[in-house]
């Protein structure tokens, strides 16, 4: 089997283990491509992709745009700040206007959970969810899985602790869903106020002590405290959060075995992770960024292949 | 489905030896040459040729690579039925100003070779590109591409499939023609 079972990438929950395996394997080949002297393949030269960002993003937007250009797709960019959305246009009207210019695929980030699924039901384009509110961020979960597989060789049986602000994180949910599908063991760790109550229903361990979490895990995925999404205070102060959940070199030096440190970025240095840890040999944070381009190339390539020319597309 | 053996192990071995001799005539000690197997089946031919060149003809230090052409194919989004999965590309040597020999098992329409020429240019500008194919399905080309070295020529029609078997993977050395049931 080497075709995705889905026509859109809306969330990890719609993918099966074979889809995930195919995306990771295809990304391995694209990682080789982006390390060539000429880092470009002609595959998507007849595809036009619109990047619609209704919410701020730097690395995800750049990563998608680079992936699209490395595949030779034509790219148009759109951000809500400079658009007709401000003038009252609906999402479907905005997107249909863009599609009228013969766009094949839409990469969308939107503050509302489920925005991608809504769009997929109403417009004729392949939709890639680049983050919808606190719901899902599937390409981040895929690149995290790719980075774990690259560092440790396998996902099956690997113990992954997701540490920090779980409740506001789409990265956490997509990661949990993906890692469970691929046979990894997952723990979430954070203050009680930042771990959602329903979390145990996803079959993950819940831990509130950082030391216990890092002693248990092979991989620690450190999440950022999302101040911008917090309308109330979930913990007394940054200093207290740092004291309880900030990962330091002392933590790592005291461990019996080395663990892999990941972070989806942007890093709050000195809060959830110290600079020494972020820049240490345990950290694969910059590998994650490079892998992000390869994963997005794989996703776009595999979804484009589903849009057969003989279907009138 | 009817399968017919058109080349047996002994004939295949003779063809491989002849190809080795021709390569040595043109490339000497292979100093500036890189042999590039096309994924997936060309790599089998490459491995066998390299083994023969080293063990049978005493050539040493042959540089090789494997090239996957999936992302360069001209039938992307046009293929139906069979799905292709990208394979490993391994080009560990600088190709700039080197003599490359593409190696594949069966040359049919020539479209894979066009894609391979496109793909390899991402690594630099070779001094020369040549094509070696174990089987040349003549009179079936869609593009103006011809092999520089060919093991055997085979006459076949479009509905037939030509398949090369290798002892290492398939249990025996042979070339088969598969005919669909009429």
How does this structure look, described?
- The complex is a heterodimer of chains A (313) and B (182).
- Chain A is of the alpha/beta class and 313 residues long.
- Chain A has helices at residues 17-33, 59-70, 91-99, 115-122, 138-152, 170-181, 210-216, 238-245, 249-253, 275-278, 285-306; strands at 48-53, 74-79, 105-110, 126-132, 159-163, 185-189, 205-207, 219-222, 260-262.
- A 5-stranded parallel β-sheet of chain A has the order 7-6-5-8-9, sandwiched between helices. Chain A has a 4-stranded parallel β-sheet with strand order 2-1-3-4, with helices on both faces.
- In chain A, helix 2 (59-70) packs across helix 11 (285-306) and helix 5 (138-152) crosses helix 6 (170-181).
- The longest helix of chain A is centred in the last third of the chain and has 22 residues, at 285-306.
- With 182 residues, chain B is of the alpha/beta class.
- Chain B has one domain (10-24, 32-75, 86-156): Rossmann fold (3-Layer(aba) Sandwich), CATH 3.40.50.
- Chain B is 27% helix and 30% strand.
- Chain B has a 5-stranded parallel β-sheet. In chain B, strands 1-8-7 form a 3-stranded antiparallel β-sheet.
- In chain B, strand 2, helix 2 (42-57) and strand 3 form a beta-alpha-beta unit.
- In chain B, helix 1 crosses helix 2.
- The radius of gyration of chain B is 16 Å and the shape is globular.
- Chain B starts with a strand and ends with a strand.
- In chain B, 37% of the residues are buried.
- Classes of the chains: A alpha/beta (313), B alpha/beta (182).
- Chains A and B meet through helix 1 and helix 11 of A and loops of B.
Structural class of chain B: alpha/beta
Subunit organisation of the chains? heterodimer
Which percent range fits the helix content of chain A? 25-40%
**Strand percent estimate of chain A:** 5-15%
Number of individual domains of chain B: 1
How are the strands of the largest sheet of chain B arranged? 3-2-4-5-6
Structural class of chain A: alpha/beta
Strand order of the largest sheet of chain A: 7-6-5-8-9
Write the H/E string of chain A, N to C. Answer: HEHEHEHEHEHEEHEHHEHH
């Amino acid at each position: 089997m080497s075709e995705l079972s889905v026509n859109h990438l809306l969330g990890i929950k719609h993918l099966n283990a074979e889809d995930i395996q195919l995306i990771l394997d295809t990304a391995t080949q694209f990682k080789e491509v982006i390390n060539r002297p000429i880092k470009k393949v002609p595959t998507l030269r007849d595809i036009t992709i619109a990047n619609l960002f209704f919410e701020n993003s730097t690395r995800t937007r750049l990563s998608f745009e680079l992936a699209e250009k490395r595949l030779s797709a034509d790219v148009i960019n759109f951000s809500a700040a400079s658009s007709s959305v401000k003038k009252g246009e609906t999402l479907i009207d905005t997107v249909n206007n863009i599609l009228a210019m013969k766009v094949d695929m839409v990469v969308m980030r939107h503050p509302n959970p489920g925005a991608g699924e809504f769009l997929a039901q109403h417009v004729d384009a392949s939709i890639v969810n680049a983050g919808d509110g606190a719901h899902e961020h599937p390409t981040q979960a895929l690149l995290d899985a790719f980075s774990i597989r690259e560092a440790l060789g396998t996902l099956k049986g690997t113990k992954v602790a997701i540490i920090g602000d779980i409740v506001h994180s789409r990265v956490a949910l997509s990661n949990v869903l993906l890692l469970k599908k691929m046979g990894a063991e997952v723990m979430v760790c954070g203050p009680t106020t930042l771990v959602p109550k329903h979390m145990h229903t996803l079959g993950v361990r819940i831990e509130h002590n950082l030391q216990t979490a890092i002693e248990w895990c092979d991989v620690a995925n450190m999440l950022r405290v999302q101040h911008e999404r917090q309308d109330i205070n979930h913990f007394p102060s940054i200093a207290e959060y740092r004291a309880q959940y900030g990962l330091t070199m002392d933590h790592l030096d005291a461990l019996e075995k080395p663990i892999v440190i990941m972070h989806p970025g942007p890093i709050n240095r000195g809060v959830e992770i110290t600079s020494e840890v972020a820049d240490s040999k345990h950290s694969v944070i910059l590998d994650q960024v490079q892998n992000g381009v390869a994963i997005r190339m794989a996703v776009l390539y595999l979804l484009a292949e589903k849009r057969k020319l003989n279907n009138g597309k | 489905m009817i399968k017919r053996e058109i080349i047996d192990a002994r004939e295949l071995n003779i063809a491989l030896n002849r190809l080795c001799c021709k390569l040595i005539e043109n490339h000497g000690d292979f100093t500036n040459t890189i042999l590039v197997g096309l994924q997936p089946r060309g790599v089998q031919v490459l491995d066998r040729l390299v083994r023969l060149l080293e063990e049978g003809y005493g050539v040493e230090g042959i540089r090789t690579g494997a090239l996957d052409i999936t992302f360069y194919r001209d039938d992307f989004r046009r293929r139906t039925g069979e799905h292709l999965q990208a394979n490993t590309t391994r080009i560990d040597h600088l190709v700039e100003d080197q003599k490359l020999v593409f190696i594949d098992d069966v040359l049919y329409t020539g479209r894979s070779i066009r894609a391979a020429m496109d793909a390899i240019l991402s690594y630099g500008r070779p001094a020369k590109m040549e094509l070696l194919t174990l089987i040349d399905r003549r009179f079936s080309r869609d593009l103006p591409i011809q092999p520089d070295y060919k093991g055997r020529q085979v006459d076949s029609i479009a509905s037939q499939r030509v398949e090369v078997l290798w002892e290492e993977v398939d249990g025996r050395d042979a070339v088969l023609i598969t005919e669909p049931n009429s």
